[in-house]
Amino acid sequence: MSAPSAVMARSRTLAIVILLFASFMDLIDATIVNVALPSMRADLEATPAQLEWIVSSYMLSFAVLLVTGSRLGDIFGRRRVFIVGIAGFTTFSLLATFAPGADVLIAARVGQGAFAAMMAPQLLSTIQVLFQPKERPAIFGLVGAVSGLAAVIGPLVGGWLVTADYFGLGWRMIFLINVPIGLVIIGLALRFVPDTTSARPPRLDWPGVALASAGLFGIAFALVEGREEDWAGWIWATLAGGVLLLGIFARYQVRRERRDGAALLPMHLFRNRGYSAGLVTQLLFQGSMAGYVLVLAIYVQNGLGFSAIKAGLTLLPFSLGAFVGTAISVPLGTRLGKIVMFVGAVCQAVSVWWAVQAIHSHGAALTVWDLAPAMALGGVGLGLLVVPLIDVALATVPQRDAGAASGAYGTIQQVGAALGVAVAGVVFFNVIGVDFSQSALERGMAAASWVAVIGYSLCALATTLLPSRAAVQAHAEQQERALALQP
Questions:
Q1: Distance of alpha carbon 483 from alpha carbon 339, whole angstroms
Q2: Smallest Cα–Cα separation from 340: which of 389, 289, 285?
Q3: Angle, helices 273-298/368-393, rounded to nearest 10 degrees
Q4: Considering only CA atoms, which of 74, 82, 81, 189 is closest in space to residue 128?
Q5: CATH number of 269-487
Q6: Which residue, 450, 456, 444, 60, is CA-closest to 227?
Q7: Could you report the average pLDDT of every consecutive run of 10 residues in the chain (487 residues)?
């Protein structure tokens, strides 16, 4: 390698490392909150609905604005939009740190998610620009590894910060730590990340953003607030209004796509059965996992008296199992196709059922070790399902639609997680009411866990509609031929 090319390689590697670290911070922030919820409840006197909003508001705002954030980078420059995103994320993290009440914290979480949606997509876009197609698989593998690492570290870091209670801040440290990190990333990005744009930048679909946002908010609001409002008529009207707005959004997207091709969500992709099955699989998986992890974290802390760090350790076998599942799925995904994902979803359903049996059997004497086998099995299932899913879901999508399909996939992922938190919260808090005793929390945990078992089972059924092994293999061979033609 010549000196100039070596310098260029180091420069682009440094740029990707900076963007990766920001993505890592975003992923941790999505998972770090769960173990801090009991502390937030006690400190802010938060209602059950507010606890759900603290988790799901971040996911909803992130999901709705993810595609828009990517397109802003294409239009105005990816470094510029990335820096705006990380600056906004850092600012709202500071607001969350000193939030005087639950409502302010929820507003701060909305802001965090909105600016994270500007920050996160610039990573994949910049990889496309800086690396040749034959170089990208290794980089995307690194991105996947960082995602897995965040799943392991998020609950542990959150538990450590809450339990250590630095400066007497308790749970507030999980947000304050973002501030110095964000400032360092801004300085490094200004110096080392190139500012690239798209040669043919797409138009922004602001009406689509407004319709999708209003529709999703209406559904989530009705699910989260319904129990506290005793499912009044206006709650059902809000739910129906949310569904109606999403229907209008879908019709508008069809018209927008026909008119100028600038739809927020390209609706013609949903005519592809394999791709649609991939979206349904992802939606059910994310919803089941997000809701289950939320109620488990609340149960072990409020019901069993686990510290925040001990609650984080409860999830550690799950995260370690995910690494094992990933190692298994990488060589098997292309060769066996959708059967790998079917087995993964079944493993997760069995894992939750196993955990419920352990909780019922041991009661108040439950330990981290009692849950470890079930949690590890769930992690293995996650690795088997998630790692090959996106490639299989996109296997029959035309190359010209790959970018739009990937963006919609990421959006559905976050929407599923937000709605999963809302549904699991409805069941959990409806069972326990205002009784936070161990026995009541155990009953609520069991009920919400069965929602996850059903969700994972439906997820397994959805995998049977994914593209066949032959289609997946043909896709892999096509990619290999394309890479072989690259200089």
A1: 27
A2: 389
A3: 160
A4: 74
A5: 1.20.1250.20
A6: 444
A7: 46 80 77 82 87 84 80 83 93 95 94 89 74 63 62 74 84 91 91 77 79 84 79 91 92 86 77 87 89 86 86 84 82 77 94 94 90 93 83 70 68 79 84 80 91 95 86 65 56
Burial track 134-170 (b if 16+ CB lie within 10 A, e otherwise)? eebeebeeebeebbbebbbbbbbbbbbbbbeeeeebb
The answer to whether 203 and 75 have CB atoms below 8 angstroms apart is no
Q: Where are the domains of the chain?
A: 1-203, 206-263, 269-487
DSSP 197: -
Spell out where 41-162 has E strands.
none
Domains 1-203 and 269-487 equal at CATH topology level: yes
Phi-psi region of 230 (alpha: psi -120 to 50; beta: other; left: phi over 0): left
Domain 1-203 has CATH 1.20.1250.20: yes
- d(Cα 445, Cα 423) in Å, to the nearest integer? 13
Looking at residue 18, its amino acid is I
